[in-house]
TrEMBL record:
PANTHER family: BETA-HEXOSAMINIDASE, BETA-N-ACETYLHEXOSAMINIDASE. Residues 26-92 form the Beta-hexosaminidase bacterial type N-terminal domain. One of its GO terms (molecular function) is beta-N-acetylhexosaminidase activity. Belongs to the glycosyl hydrolase 20 family. The lineage of its organism: Bacteria, Bacillati, Actinomycetota, Actinomycetes, Pseudonocardiales. The keyword Repeat does not apply. The keyword Hydrolase applies. This is beta-N-acetylhexosaminidase. It comes from Amycolatopsis magusensis. Residues 95-417 form the Glycoside hydrolase family 20 catalytic domain. It holds the Pfam family Glyco_hydro_20b. Gene3D superfamilies: Chitobiase/beta-hexosaminidase domain 2-like, Glycosidases. Its EC number is 3.2.1.52. InterPro entries: Beta_hexosaminidase_sua/sub, GH, Glyco_hydro_20_cat, Hex-like_dom2, HEX_bac_N.
């Protein structure tokens, strides 16, 4: 099996052997000595044996076997090869948190599209879907008792096109939301693929959709669901009644999502006061009382939250270093490295070029342990997370283009140990993995640049 690792992440240890196997049945063995989520796949002409210490390891071992059967094994139906090369693969992940954020608040993705995205995460051995469900531009989760959150907050009458400072809008209504049953289905579907869905209800900023539904949450002034992108100065009114409202919201969320971790946002709060930090602390305390842990973006460190709160270090790596030193667990997700909505080249055909220039090679070179982080603090790094914000990704085709193949590179970063060679990775990607994405129907960005139908001529961006 020389050169194995085509699907990515590449395995920890590969021992090739001569010959091929055409065995259809896989023998499963429990092996408590293997690491969590790890597996050992032994292939001989006579037998295929998969050993694992847990169900996740068995799942990942079967995913590796699917890789070995060739690209056709990734089609919904058809003609996968029965032949697989002989040898031994001993494999386990580097990090326990291998995540990807999908923003469905800015541009809604249907339930079927979310389930497809879950399948793509599972195929890359990622295990956390951070589900960004609420923002200024839309509220996407049904909350019993508060029907206006979806009847009003899930819909905006138009959207900004691209990124600019002018009044131009597309005049096209947009919206959608998930029922409680939809979300339970997504959670169960993800769990079958060993993916934890971490919901995010963003407070106290990024809340205009909620305020449009219930103006008292923002002080009483009527507003519409926001049609712009960017940082919104409109904030929740940090009163006891607003805290009570969100306690009920989070209780409803906890009934749907079994995840220990619940994301609460906390980012981009212009003009924040001590009262807003107090509001965030009350939410954290409420989740703790319910046996859960809050995940907040790194701005919440300014309010010195309880150390039970996990910090998503997004504005850079410095906050992750600081949070770990203060006793917080950390998920590394710096915008300078792993924001997949940011532009992939400076070519004029690059659609809606926003943010930093981050190529496939840049993502592959990312190291989740900051150089400034002392060795003693490294155990606080749970892992890392790629971010797919969707202000400028208004269809599943645009999500595919932004996420892939850079998410493939990220998957290898958070799974594999040891040195990384981009040329070697690029060869595996081109020869083995892009055909799998083709079989899966993923409309990824070609390495040479966008197809003509993937461009967006005349739509302004905002490069950094």
């Amino acid at each position: 099996m020389t050169g194995f690792g085509g699907l990515l992440p590449r395995p920890v240890s590969v021992t090739p052997a001569p010959g091929v196997s055409t065995v259809d049945t896989v023998r499963h063995r429990d092996d408590a000595g293997l690491p969590a989520e790890g597996y050992r796949l032994e292939i001989t002409p006579e037998a295929i044996t998969l050993s694992a210490s847990d169900a996740a390891g068995r799942f990942y071992g079967m995913e590796t076997l699917r890789q070995l059967r060739g690209p056709s094994a990734f089609r919904a139906a058809g003609f996968a090869s029965a032949e697989v090369p002989c040898g031994v693969v001993a494999d386990h992940p580097r990090f326990s948190w291998r995540g990807c954020l999908l923003d469905v608040a800015r541009n809604f993705r249907t339930k079927a599209e979310v389930l497809r995205f879950v399948d793509l995460l599972a195929a890359h051995k990622l295990n956390v879907l951070h589900f960004h469900l609420t923002d200024d531009q839309g509220w996407r989760v049904e909350i019993p008792g508060f029907p206006r959150l979806t009847s009003v907050g899930a819909w905006r009458h138009e959207s900004m096109v691209g990124r600019h400072d002018g009044p131009e809008r597309d005049g096209r209504p947009h919206g959608g939301f998930y029922t409680v049953d939809d979300l339970r289905e997504i959670v169960a579907y993800a769990a079958e693929r060993h993916i934890t869905v971490v919901p995010e209800i963003d407070v106290p900023g990024h809340s205009q959709a909620a305020i449009a539904a219930y103006p008292e949450l923002g002080g009483g002034e009527p507003v519409e669901v926001w049609t712009s992108w960017g940082i919104n100065p409109r904030l929740l009114d940090p009163t006891e009644s607003t805290v009570d409202f969100y306690r009920r919201v989070f209780d409803a969320v906890l009934e749907i999502f079994p995840s220990e971790v619940i994301a609460i946002g906390g980012d981009e709060v212009p003009g924040a006061t001590e009262r807003h930090a107090w509001f965030v602390d009350r939410v954290i305390e409420h989740l703790e009382a319910r046996g859960r842990r809050a995940l907040g973006w790194d701005e919440i460190l300014d309010g010195k939250p309880a150390t039970s709160a996990i910090i998503g270090s997004w504005r850079g790596e410095e906050a992750g270093v600081l949070a770990a030193a203060q006793g917080h667990d950390v998920v590394m997700c710096p915008e300078q490295h792993v924001y997949l909505d940011h532009r992939q080249s400076d070519h004029p055909d690059e659609p809606i070029p926003v943010g930093y220039l981050r190529t496939l090679a840049d993502v592959y070179a990312y190291e989740p342990y900051p150089a400034e982080m002392p060795e003693s603090a490294r155990p606080r790094v749970l892992g890392a997370q790629a971010q797919v914000w969707t202000e400028h990704l208004d269809s599943v085709r645009r999500v595919d283009y932004a996420a892939f193949p850079r998410l493939c590179a990220f998957a290898e970063v958070v799974w594999s140990t040891g040195p990384r060679d981009f040329d070697e990775f690029s060869a595996r990607l081109t020869e083995s993995h892009l055909p799998r994405l083709d079989a899966l129907g993923v409309e990824y960005r070609p390495l040479a640049g966008p197809h003509p139908w993937q461009t967006r001529p005349g739509v302004p961006g905002r490069p950094r």
